[in-house]
Amino acid sequence: MERKMFMLKRFLCIGTAVLTALLSACTANKDKIDISEIGEGLTIYSFSAGKADAELIYSEDWAVLIDCGEKGFGKEIVAYMEENGIKKLDYLIITHFDKDHVGGAAKVLKECEVGTVLQSNSPKEGNEYENYLEALDKKGMTAQTVREVLNFTLGEATFTVDPPAQEVYDKDPSNNSSLITSVTLGDVDMLFAGDAENERLAEFNANNDKVYRFVKVPYHGHWQKQLKPFAEKIKADIAVITCSDEEPEDEETVSLFKKCGAEVFLTRKNAVIAKCDGKNIAAEYEK
């Protein structure tokens, strides 16, 4: 009798566990929205630019480019804009002046109509930076160095550009001077973290109380200790890591964002397209 009762309890426990797992799987599938179900709003195109950043955020009426990849990549950005009927960049944001972020800026400035250029406060010597300055000069433009939180609105979307708290950082001064940009459309917040490293992330973590449905993961997915509180706070549904086969993402970073509930996309596999209608957001690799 006791053995029968034991076996019955064991069967019930196993059955409960299986049922819970099935319900969880069903819930996950139900909650996941296909990109084809997203209505009108904005598109985020994360270029497959190697270990470099270039993210184009746009709607029918406006466009913002965050970083430009390495030297020579500007032509890829210009080609995508032409193919998608994007005739003007309302804002070009240079998060910092490493060559894998500013390298393609000269070409973009030369070939595209650009309204406003926003830049980091930490210049960095190099050919790419000099080419960028020369292109600005030829265009008759002066970039705005962001030293205080800056907000602007395009259509229904609100952008917030958050500058570094310090003028100079002792460690990794260029990356830690990254501008961090957030975009809000309706109920959805999206985050673009440049190459922020530990000091910069610690600043952001201390002041952030938002959940971001989308995040461009900082510093190409390299593991750093401040990523854990960062990922746990923002609770992203979608995490995009800009990386290459030669310089891939750290597995610990991927595991962290997955554990925090994100679907992780790697630009070394292909470009990533995300769409947001103000209520929902979804992403997929470019087909």
TrEMBL record:
<dbReference type="InterPro" id="IPR036866">
    <property type="entry name" value="RibonucZ/Hydroxyglut_hydro"/>
</dbReference>
<feature type="signal peptide">
    <location>
        <begin position="1"/>
        <end position="30"/>
    </location>
</feature>
<feature type="domain" description="Metallo-beta-lactamase">
    <location>
        <begin position="56"/>
        <end position="241"/>
    </location>
</feature>
<dbReference type="Pfam" id="PF00753">
    <property type="entry name" value="Lactamase_B"/>
</dbReference>
<protein>
    <submittedName>
        <fullName>Metallo-beta-lactamase superfamily exported protein</fullName>
    </submittedName>
</protein>
<dbReference type="InterPro" id="IPR001279">
    <property type="entry name" value="Metallo-B-lactamas"/>
</dbReference>
<keyword id="KW-0732">Signal</keyword>
<dbReference type="InterPro" id="IPR052159">
    <property type="entry name" value="Competence_DNA_uptake"/>
</dbReference>
<dbReference type="InterPro" id="IPR035681">
    <property type="entry name" value="ComA-like_MBL"/>
</dbReference>
